[in-house]
Amino acid sequence: MSVAKTDPSSAQAEFQAEFQNTLGSLTQYFANICSKLVHINGVSRTLQQDVKLMHRHYRKSHARLSKSRRKKHNTKIHLPMKVSKQLRKFLSLSSSDLISKKDTMGLISAYVKNNNLQLESNRRLFKPNAALCKLFGITKSNAKPITFVEINKYVSKHFMDNTPAKST
Predict the structure, then answer these.
(1) What pLDDT, on a 0 to 100 scale, did the predictor assign at position 48?
(2) Are 143 and 127 in contact (CB under 8 A)?
(3) Cross-strand bridge partners of residue 160
(4) Measured between alpha carbons, how far is 101 from 80 in angstroms, rounded to an integer?
(5) What are phi and psi of 100, to 5 degrees?
(6) How far apart are CA 143 and CA 131, in angstroms?
(7) Model-level pTM greater than 0.90?
(8) Cα–Cα distance, 100 to 108 (Å, whole number)
(9) φ/ψ (deg, to 5) at 126
(10) What local confidence, expressed as pLDDT, does residue 73 receive?
(11) Distance of alpha carbon 104 from alpha carbon 39, whole angstroms
């Protein structure tokens, strides 16, 4: 058996050439992968922006829809109703005028503010004067500070229900 001896410098040159060839193809693969990753990164950013935009539109439309659902204009507080003679006299209404509880509370609140009945220490409270005590059905000596929200409690008795009675 004869073993062929190869020149070490030619073997090294052959190895070097094969290594360069492999390195070149690996570099091409790596460059190809990097360009695909850059493309994927761009697509990912575009998708993120689209999702953010879609979410923003959803939030705005949801807020708009939920606001429209919250408004209840057909509740009893908004319906014009007949009121007692005492309340009509206090509000300077004619006998045929109808007024809602909301409007009545607003007018009484304006009366309180115009007559400086609010407490200086807490502007959310007011001390009723003689006219309000008479309207609310409380005695002047027992008149304690009242909040504006409580006006409804005191004027509710002055409203007459306009709903027709159901016949059975």
Answers:
(1) 93
(2) yes
(3) 82
(4) 8
(5) -85, 160
(6) 12
(7) no
(8) 12
(9) -140, 155
(10) 61
(11) 67
